[in-house]
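Data availability excerpt. The first of two example chains:
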Amino acid sequence: MPDYNMGRATGEVAITYDGRGLRQAQADMAATGAEAAALDVAMGRVNRSFDDNREKSVASAEAIVKARGEVEELRKAYQRQQTEYEQGQQRVNEAMDRARFRYSSVMAWTSAPAFAGS
């Protein structure tokens, strides 16, 4: 490549600057900061709401587990009582059968010809 020497230049350079864009950017950044602060407050409320809901969900789940245990105990108690009832009913039926047999035996004995003729 060739090497050219153009000499020396002197003079003034005038730069004009319009700062409207910078001022607008600064205003936008300040507004963004305010919006970010408001968003932070709102997110804090959302997080507290999530925490409250989580705690309530845990409490509800614990209550469901407890209630399920209580229902299971009731089911077992019902089965025991049902079994006892059925056993009692069986004993009553057997007693009624014995009583009917005795009554029919007594009736047959008292209506027998040997007894009737006495």
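And the second chain:
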Amino acid sequence: MIIWLSIFFILIVTNLFSGYFNVFYLGLYHPFKFETTNGEFSATLHFGQSMKMEDIENRFESFKQDNPTIENVKLYRNFKINVLEFWNWYRFATHPMYRYPYKKPT
């Protein structure tokens, strides 16, 4: 019982302080890249900055309006979710950037 409580406590604490873990693990300005199927549109979020997914989504909507000839355009993330990074589990479940489907970078 104590072992399970200890594991649970470690998971809670590491997810609360995942930003600090990621600075050491990923670096201060780790890029998270997004692009469309054929690479017509691409954008990057940097971990050390404000990480506003809304900015990427707004730029993508503007791209779609400026390029109406491109049909069925969809945005993908170019980074994998590493489930072994237990300190990021909360972020994986709640941050909107992880809701996009994965595609290998072009």
